[in-house]
Amino acid sequence: MLTYNQSFGKHNITALAGYEQIVNKTNNVYSQMSSVGEPGYSYIQTSASTLGLSGTYDPQGLIQSQFARVNYNYNERYFLSASIRQDANYDVFGPNKQKGIFPAASVGWTISEEPFFKSALPGINSLKFRGSYGQLGNSNVQPYSFTSTYSQFQTATGISGGAQGFAPGQPFQIANTLTGIPNPNLHWETITETDLGFDGEALQGSLYFTAELYNKKTSDLIYHLPLSASSGFSQPYITNIGDVANKGFELMAGYRNKIGKLGFDVSANLSFNQNKVTKLSGAATDAVYDGYNYYSMGNTSFNQMPNDQITITKVGLPFGSFYGYKVLGIFTDEATAQKQVVNGHKADIGDLEYQDINGDGKIDQNDRQVIGNPNPKFIYGFNIRLNYAGFDLAALFNGVAGVQLFNGVQAYEQSLFQDGNTTSQVFHDSFLGSNGLTSQPRLLSPVAAGGNALDQNENYSSVNSYFVQSGAYLKLKNLQLGYTFSNSTLKQVSIKSLRVFVMANNVFTITKYKGLDPELGSAFTTGGVVSPTTQGIDAVTNYPQARIFSAGLDVSL
Q: Which uninterrupted H or E stretch holds 411?
């Protein structure tokens, strides 16, 4: 890196130019062998034998970057910054598009330093305007995702007969099959963001605030596109699928002061965001469907919603919207229920009533629609800090509002699990045992309709809005209490500072959500990949945030 720093009167300039190269070379081998014969015997592979050999050899991992930046300010009042960088990732992106160029620029104005401002608003100590535009590149995918993938299998010539259906005496043949489609055009995902904001302090620094408007666009989104089984490929197709826009407003304000020996600092933040898909391209020109409610990753045998995808990503919709049947209620009379047909079965009292969009008298895939939005309308938080005579207390609250979650766990809790296990919630289902009509849909068909057939109306085995619930919450995320010993006490034992504290994380949650924890990330898709289009799916593979209690001691000698 080369840096230039110079001042000319009230003009201050700092310039930087640099080059970076990261080389990564990998060469490793892992082997395993067990159930080997006694000394003097050659290796004999039996049913109890284990033979494993794997490794990685990659001498070509390479990332190259060139970058430059110029900062200018006049009298610490007017600020200007501009930068540009080029990044090339040779082992992540295809040979056609390995390089990306990302510019950025920002301006700042310390308004409170202007003479007219000081005389007009003397109560505001500091006020600064800032604006910025910039691009960032994302290359967060596995190396060589753009290449073909293969799997090896063994077969034998001849016809049936012999062990495992192979003909006796016929030689084994080792073959390879293509399991993933190459994409030489896989390239950088680009995030372009424009920001306008104000930062300020008033009342001699006691009151402080930040306000910001932002417009963020993610272009050429990198995505593991699921492929249908009919394609013949078992691995998702990794490609750039389109653009997503996020627009919003953020506000933070706080007040700090001291009353006698009690010092305090209280602040709050609020963030509004609007999310929308603006473009789909390449292999995903219509819509992307994603997300499953699998009991275990890649295992469909315990799946309550077999092969039904839960989210849709489509132009004009929020990213990863929930997609399925809209529930209008639970049938309370037989005459109305018999008008609904699901997979050839008429509904009955206690079944969910689905909206028949096309009015054809049957509920099928053509009646699916958007049933929820996993993107919160706003996020908020509070931060409280107190200190008094050596004691200090800190509390951090955070929450979300206007968000919905898909409670896929509830489908397992309120119905019979495949191996016979279940939870006590199943006993609240309509018409189970001696129950009448309850708030939960029925699981078994009535005896008059064929007796104890399981979930013919797909109350629990279809993606529907019965499982879409409010995910709004307020959490006490962190609480900490500490005590700092006075210097006069510590001098006697030659210690500079000593503080003891106790702390708790995830102390409590206020929410109407019926699951274990409304604070969710993205769920897995087929193949075990965490996908951004599966946000808000509470599948049984999710684990709730842990409540942690701890104590500590900070000592400086």
A: helix 409-413
